[in-house]
């Protein structure tokens, strides 16, 4: 018998007393014949998890913000696993807004993804907006089986309209079959060296990436490709990695033009 963890709504915790919210959300997708089921869908703290209508064999989950987060001092974590043969698509209902919190400590937002053999996972949430005064440490740790497929999009918008940016550091670590495929780190906003210089973002305030890992690239390696006609409207570059993967890196003046660049490079899903 398969058990589904119930979702409960608890009173919002006192951030001042706790030094920030501690919350973990868990998603488990399992193949059942020709479909994918969700035996675990467990939201916590600011994470409310909702099932969406399935698409073919793909189970779909939407992350809905149940409270304002992340704020300074918060410790947030999402764990998602697509077991062997499963197909999982994860999105969010709205952008994630990082704000200054009641404590001077940075907030952390950790995402752990595990994808089994012949399984696929699409991680396609709305952007992260780093408001003035915010300080966020965000990480993705991803473990892929040799035959797994992954599509991951991440976007950062540095500051809301008319305000200076917050500070954010991001680290993306991807292992395939136990071997490191990609490990990179970036920092933007006040205190980050050279982030707004001509070698990094210059006058742009939106940046993002699209990572696709697919065994089909072992036989058909994509070529380096530049996206975007004019630098002032944002540009992106698609590059093959040392493995069956491609990485699109984009910068743009705003989130709308950033999404346009990443959508142009995104495979069907």
Compact summary:
Keywords: Chaperone, Cytoplasm, Nickel insertion. The chain has 269 residues and is mainly beta.
How are the elements arranged and paired?
Blueprint: H1 15-18, E1 22-32, E2 35-42, E3 47-55, E4 58-65, E5 75-82, E6 87-92, E7 96-98, E8 107-115, E9 120-123, E10 128-130, E11 135-144, E12 149-158, E13 167-176, E14 179-188, E15 206-213, E16 225-227, E17 235-240, E18 245-252, H2 255-265
Parallel strand pairs: 1-5, 4-6, 5-8, 6-9, 7-10, 8-11, 9-12, 10-12, 11-13
Antiparallel strand pairs: 1-2, 3-4, 12-15, 13-14, 15-18, 16-17, 17-18
Overview of the structural elements:
The protein has two helices and 18 strands. The chain has a domain at 20-203. Mean pLDDT is 91; it is low at 1-12. It has helices at residues 15-18, 255-265, and strands at residues 22-32, 35-42, 47-55, 58-65, 75-82, 87-92, 96-98, 107-115, 120-123, 128-130, 135-144, 149-158, 167-176, 179-188, 206-213, 225-227, 235-240, 245-252.
Could you describe the largest sheet, including whether it forms a barrel? 11 strands, mixed
Q: Over all CA atoms, what is the radius of gyration?
A: 19 Å
Given the structure, what is the number of helices?
A: 2
User: How many DSSP E strands?
Assistant: 18
Task: Please state roughly what percent of the residues sit in beta strands, choosing from under 5%, 5-15%, 15-25%, 25-35%, 35-45% or over 45%.
Answer: over 45%
Structural shape: globular
Mean pLDDT: 91
Residue share in helix? under 10%
Provide the low-confidence segments as ranges.
1-12
Q: Give me the strand/helix succession.
A: HEEEEEEEEEEEEEEEEEEH
The end-to-end distance, rounded to whole angstroms, is: 30 Å
Q: What structural class do the secondary elements suggest?
A: mainly beta
GO molecular function, one term: nickel cation binding
Subcellular location: Cytoplasm
Keywords: Chaperone, Cytoplasm, Nickel insertion
Main location: cytoplasm
């Amino acid at each position: 018998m398969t058990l589904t963890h119930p979702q409960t709504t608890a009173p919002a915790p006192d951030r001042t007393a706790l030094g920030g919210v501690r919350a973990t959300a868990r998603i488990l997708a399992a193949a059942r014949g020709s479909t994918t089921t969700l035996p675990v869908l467990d939201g916590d703290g600011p994470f409310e998890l909702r099932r969406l209508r399935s698409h073919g064999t793909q189970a779909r989950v939407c992350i809905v913000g149940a409270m304002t987060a992340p704020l300074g001092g918060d410790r947030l974590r999402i764990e998602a696993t697509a077991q062997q043969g499963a197909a999982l698509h994860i999105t969010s209902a709205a952008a994630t807004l990082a704000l200054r919190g009641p404590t001077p400590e940075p907030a952390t937002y950790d995402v752990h993804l595990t994808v089994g053999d012949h399984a696929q996972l699409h991680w396609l949430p709305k952007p992260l907006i780093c408001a003035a005064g915010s300080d966020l440490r965000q990480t993705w740790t991803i473990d892929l089986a040799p035959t797994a497929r992954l599509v991951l999009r991440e976007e950062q918008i540095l500051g809301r309209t008319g305000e200076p940016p917050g500070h954010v550091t991001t680290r993306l670590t991807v292992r395939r079959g136990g071997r490191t495929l990609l490990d990179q780190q970036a920092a933007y906003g006040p205190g980050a060296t050279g982030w707004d210089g001509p070698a990094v973002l210059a006058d742009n305030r939106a940046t993002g990436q699209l990572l696709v890992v697919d065994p089909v690239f072992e036989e058909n390696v994509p070529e380096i490709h530049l996206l975007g006609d004019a630098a002032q409207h944002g540009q992106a570059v698609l590059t093959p990695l040392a493995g069956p993967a491609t990485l699109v890196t984009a910068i743009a003046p705003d989130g709308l033009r950033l999404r346009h660049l990443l959508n142009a490079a995104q495979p069907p899903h």
